[in-house]
Automatic annotation (TrEMBL):
TM stretches of this protein: none
Native source species: Mariniflexile fucanivorans
GO molecular function: metallocarboxypeptidase activity; zinc ion binding
GO biological process: proteolysis
The protein, known as: Zinc carboxypeptidase
Length: 381
């Protein structure tokens, strides 16, 4: 399917009821209720705080794909794109009927509803569910494991979001979307199973390169059997990690949402039309590995005491009154020539003060700084 056509589908079927970064059960439950007469929606378990965990089944084909999102509650972009995908598949558009005819999708939109409500990476027991794949100490981990065993997927999509710090390789290009075909042994062997995942990632990368050239990365594939992706891969189910990252000036992750959607459709269309063997995996190996080379803001050539140096700022995401706010925090005060910035402010050797009129120091949090008696906003546009 042509990428331009997938873009048009996104514009037509984007779910208008979901936006920005704070997505919880409260937001998705009305949507699931409206869809209940068109597809299978079921409660498959409960979280630590007894919130429902939902499963959605759509399609009637032989190729089974298991997709789960918000295993980390503060990573919601892939969830928004899942509902865009569901809207598309429930439409009368003939261009996606092959997906429904060839594939059956089982989707868990929010695996960690407590984490989503609190906007945290961890669940209500302070556990990272993506390190609980072996011990299965948490109810949410057991729900995913049960879904995996019952559905018996041929492919798994492990859907996440990543911070603004990542670059696609050692470049001044943000890793707007990243992927990984997780390792399935300590040697990180490129097994036949991994090759299948790599081939599908290569298809998604090709589509995305048309829209965000040089802004796709892959993660380091160091093996950790406690991670869900590594566990499922080790059980010979091709598993793909998706990471929704930063696009310029897109802190709400609405542009990135569209790229994740394009990756969904491109990959599902490919799976539906092909017997994926892994023979075309080579292009995956050319995707640059993510590096941690970005700061949200760099104030260049600032005078701090007697020194001329740089100031690096990262946003802290905080849930305030059911909305995510981006609070600037001074992360580094040093020469930052090795780093890139999503926004650069030139201090031109001027002193940079905080809101109290004091010289800036590390860990300072505020929405502005003062230079030359002028307030300079640090907030994203």
């Amino acid at each position: 399917m042509l990428t331009e056509h997938i873009k048009a589908l996104f514009s037509k079927y984007k779910e208008q009821g979901l936006n920005h970064r704070y997505i919880t059960n409260k937001h998705i439950e009305p949507l699931l209720k409206n869809m209940a007469n068109k597809l299978q929606v079921e409660t498959i378990g409960a979280s630590v705080l007894n919130q429902h965990i939902y499963g959605v089944k759509i399609g009637h084909g032989d190729k089974r794909i298991l997709m789960w999102s918000q295993m980390h509650g503060n990573e919601s972009t892939t969830t928004k794109a899942l509902f865009d995908l569901l809207n598309t598949l429930l439409s009368d558009d003939l261009s996606v009927k092959n997906i429904l005819n060839s594939c059956t999708l089982y989707i868990i939109p929010i695996l960690s509803p407590d984490g989503a409500q609190a906007y945290t990476r961890i669940n209500a027991n302070q556990i990272d569910l993506n390190r609980d794949a072996q011990d299965l100490t948490q109810p949410e981990s057991k729900v995913l494991r049960s879904a995996f065993e019952a559905f018996k997927p041929h492919y798994c999509y492990n859907l996440h979001g990543q911070r603004t710090i990542f670059s696609a390789g050692k470049t001044n290009n943000p890793a707007t979307v990243s992927f990984l075909a997780p390792a399935q042994d300590k040697a990180c062997t490129i097994t036949p199973n991994r090759k299948i995942a790599m081939e599908i990632i290569a298809v998604m990368d090709k589509a995305l390169q048309e829209l965000i050239p040089h802004q796709v990365g892959v993660y380091d594939d160091a093996f950790n059997i406690n991670c869900v992706g590594d566990t499922f891969q080790s059980e010979n189910v091709p598993t793909i990690l998706f990471e929704a990252g930063h696009y310029p000036n897109d802190y709400a992750r609405e542009e990135t949402r569209s790229f994740i959607y394009i990756a969904y459709i491109a990959s599902l269309d490919y799976i539906s039309k092909n017997e994926v063997t892994g023979v075309h995996y080579d292009s995956y190996l050319k995707i640059p590995e993510n590096e941690k080379l970005f700061l949200d803001i760099i104030i260049k050539n600032a005078k701090i005491g007697e020194a001329i140096t740089d100031i690096g700022i990262l946003y802290q995401e905080k849930l305030i009154d059911n909305k995510i706010h981006f609070i600037p925090k001074v992360e580094k005060i040093e020469n930052l020539e090795a780093y890139f910035a999503h926004k650069t402010i030139q201090a031109n050797n001027l002193e940079v003060f905080n809101s109290e009129g004091e010289l800036l120091n590390q860990d300072y949090e505020n929405v502005f700084v003062i230079m030359n008696n002028e307030k300079i906003s640090l907030l994203p546009k």
